């Protein structure tokens, strides 16, 4: 006999779907209204400044007085800091039509802290592309994601990155140099083994996937390959859903040797022949190393048809000002 709950299971599922969609729509509408409200407040502040020929000092005083009066008459949400950013919001997004309501006020609050227009546009696009939460956005901004991606590009590539964000359309789009693994909380000068590094990554897998970027699915660790009665082990194996290929990662705590690159080449050949199924593209190999000699890597990889990338990792946040200066030099030089 079919139970009452089983009879109505399809109906319950359908109703749940409607409720979830409705709640999502309500949340988006509320978010859109908040964003639009704050943009209009910023507009009013700027218009007031323009009609009264405000100076920097009088503008600052206007914000202070507005904060006190609005907090008294309306309530929370109108601190001096919030009003300052509402003003900046209108200044940086003067065309209200272009303001995306997919982003929350919290996203815009963080975006407005970025002075460089190219960098701000990149993060705005990337929030769209990868549906970042505010927390994820803050982390990527703190680790200078834009600068790390931009350093491998020419001026045209940097401008394109700013306009559209980073999308995984080619294997090279997956690669960062360096990767920032500050979330592992390993002191910079502490001695650790490759096994310990791997274990730390597994313990912080969600953060590591965020650093890798959108589209990665974790397959396993220490994946065994047996050839001629010899066992080899790939440290970390992922599958990229967009590029439809395996991504093999080997971890090295010292400088990369030519034997490490040869070993990765073996892994890739094995996976392409033994693991790939119909529809899979050739696998990609990433060697993450604490030290890297670019010229050595160039010669070691030259002539290899498999896609092997060697990238540094670091256990601390990068010096963002230094990276920004290097990006500026690339753009100015070209």
From TrEMBL:
Domain of life: Bacteria
Pfam (any one): YhcG_C
Domain YhcG PDDEXK nuclease span(s) in chain numbering: 173-327
Entry coiled-coil feature ranges: none
InterPro entries in alphabetical order: PD-DEXK-like_domain (IPR053148), tRNA_endonuc-like_dom_sf (IPR011856), YhcG_C (IPR009362), YhcG_N (IPR041527)
Domain YhcG N-terminal: 15-148
Matching PANTHER family: NUCLEASE YHCG-RELATED, UNCHARACTERIZED PROTEIN YHCG-RELATED
Protein name: Nuclease of restriction endonuclease-like (RecB) superfamily
Organism: Flavobacterium arsenatis
